[in-house]
Amino acid sequence: MTKVVPLAIPPRASARQHPLESPRLLLQPLDTTDAQELWAAIEGSRQHLGRWLPWVPFTDSLTATLRFIEASAIDWDTGRSLRYLIRERGSRRLLGVVGLDACVHLHRAAELGYWLKRDVTGHGFMTEAARTLVDAGFQRLHLHRIRCAAATDNHASLQVIARLGFRFEGLARHAEWVDARWLDHAVFAKLATDD
Ligand SMILES: CC(C)(COP(=O)(O)OP(=O)(O)OC[C@H]1O[C@@H](n2cnc3c(N)ncnc32)[C@H](O)[C@@H]1OP(=O)(O)O)[C@@H](O)C(=O)NCCC(=O)NCCS
């Protein structure tokens, strides 16, 4: 019988107490105490985010943001998704969100997703945050495969994926209906065993 290696998902409280760290950033699980800041971040970047992310029009109030955070807590606690708030280390200002979604324990697989506030793009924050999470995913959680997809015309996201060393696997046509148009997705993945 094949041995199943379960994903080593840390308890949410301990992940919050001991954030993932990189030179400029801290990554902490979303918490209801972040709701106001998260709502302000989404509201302030609505157009920038809404071009690429299908959930943006549905996150239309502080209450909806709170519901998303509560759902994320349940997803974390049931081992389905790990969603982290990205904060700058020194100032503690909120920069965006990065997460591993759709965790499948049997296959040790997950999907990387992310966004930044519009006014903090262009500094390499997402490359740093996503690299930190991907490394933790392989080294601490024992993931074997991380998938990441971006619209074929989302050049900023495609650059992030390229910098992280993901390999191109194919195209998913009309994968999402976002901002009143179909997005074709370029699909990439990285394996724990890749160079
Ligand atoms: C996708 C997204 C997170 C990319 O943001 P980004 O700021 O371009 O990505 P990074 O934070 O990695 O920064 C890279 C940029 O910073 C520059 N940079 C500056 N210092 C850097 C550093 N130390 N390391 C790496 N890049 C650095 C890079 O040259 C690059 O700029 P360029 O695009 O002009 O070449 C952002 O555009 C976004 O939130 N988009 C909307 C939501 C979205 O599309 N999410 C993904 C769906 S698949």
Structure overview:
This protein is an alpha+beta fold. It has one domain (12-191): Gcn5-related N-acetyltransferase (GNAT) (Aminopeptidase). Helices cover 31% and strands 32% of the residues. The chain has six helices and eight strands; from the N terminus they run H-E-E-H-H-H-E-E-E-H-E-H-E-E. It has helices at residues 12-17, 35-44, 46-50, 62-77, 125-139, 155-163; strands spanning 20-21, 25-29, 82-88, 94-104, 109-116, 145-151, 167-178, 181-191. It has an eight-stranded mixed beta sheet, sandwiched between helices. A hairpin with a 5-residue loop joins strand 3 (82-88) and strand 4 (94-104). The longest helix has 16 residues, at 62-77. It is globular and about 45 Å long. It starts with 11 loop residues before the first helix and ends with a strand. The relative contact order is 0.16. Bound molecules: coenzyme A. Coenzyme A binds next to helix 3, strand 5, helix 5 and helix 6.
